[in-house]
Design goal:
It is built from no helices and 7 strands. The chain has 128 residues and is mostly beta strands.
């Protein structure tokens, strides 16, 4: 049965970030179980240094895929390692164009592909 994890976190690189992760997770029939993971993330990063008309905002939306391994400590507790990889991402950066009068420049980047460039997460799960 699939389950959904949600992370809302802030870091120095991305002050606002919301991530969702869906795991195809069978009930534990052994100590180890393999997961197929899908993820979606939304983040916004704003830099506003001192001075007028010099703030920069970057918005990012992404979809990903991955694999995970669960080690079941008991029926209710599990340790897991998940390797998430990018699949599709779209980002746009808006910044002043230097001419004043509130005019801005927007740079947009879209990337896609099935690549193996994982970000690794280690988690502890409590199931009811």
């Amino acid at each position: 049965m699939p389950w959904l994890s949600t992370w809302i976190h802030a870091t120095a690189a991305s002050p606002i970030s919301v991530s969702f992760c869906v795991d195809v997770l069978p009930m534990p029939s052994s100590v180890l179980s393999l997961e197929l993971v899908g993820s979606a993330a939304i983040s916004q990063h704003k830099v506003n240094p001192d001075g007028p008309d010099n703030d920069t905002t970057t918005n990012m939306q992404a979809l990903g895929w991955g694999l995970g391994i669960n080690y079941w400590l008991s029926r209710h507790w599990a340790l897991s390692a998940i390797a998430l990889n990018p699949l599709l991402s779209h980002s746009s950066t808006e910044s002043p164009n230097g001419l004043g009068m509130g005019m801005t420049q927007t740079d947009t980047t879209t990337t896609y592909g099935i690549v193996f460039d994982p970000s690794i997460s280690f988690l502890i799960h409590l199931y009811h």
